[in-house]
Design brief:
Elements (H helix, E strand, L loop, with lengths): L12 H13 L4 E8 L4 E4 L9 E6 L2 E11 L4 H18 L6 E11 L2
Parallel strand pairs: 4-5
Antiparallel strand pairs: 1-2, 1-4, 3-4
Helix pairs in contact: 1-2
């Protein structure tokens, strides 16, 4: 087992967004992250190298809030996919970034056939 190192760990919001995005893509039923263009009224499926655009990260004190904008596969149980997303993102952020107070909100922006 690894030995603890004294000090503090600071993780940027971009790093948190990357971790959350990769965890989300591993979840069953998630096609990808969504980018919302409000001026044109269009929702786009983002490529893997642009995951951050579909994730909003806000930190207030010791609490981190992660908003995931996703596109799910047609025919999946949206409630179960949302629960799996919350669980996966919370687990990854606790394990890798050592964040314990994480709130994950899932916004299903669309459905798509794989």
């Amino acid at each position: 087992m690894a030995k603890a190192v004294p000090g503090t760990l600071k993780v940027s919001n971009d790093c948190i967004a990357d971790l959350a995005g990769y965890a989300a893509l591993e979840c069953y039923g998630v096609v990808g992250m969504a980018d919302i263009d409000e001026t044109a009224g269009v929702i786009r499926l983002l490529p893997i190298y642009r995951l951050r655009r579909g994730i909003d990260v806000m930190s207030e004190g010791t609490t981190v809030t992660v908003d995931l904008h996703v596109i799910v596969e047609q025919g999946v149980n949206m409630t179960q996919v949302s629960a799996n997303l919350k669980s996966a993102v919370t687990f990854i952020l606790a394990r890798i970034a050592e964040l314990d107070a994480v709130t994950v909100r899932v916004h299903i922006e669309g459905m798509r056939v794989r």
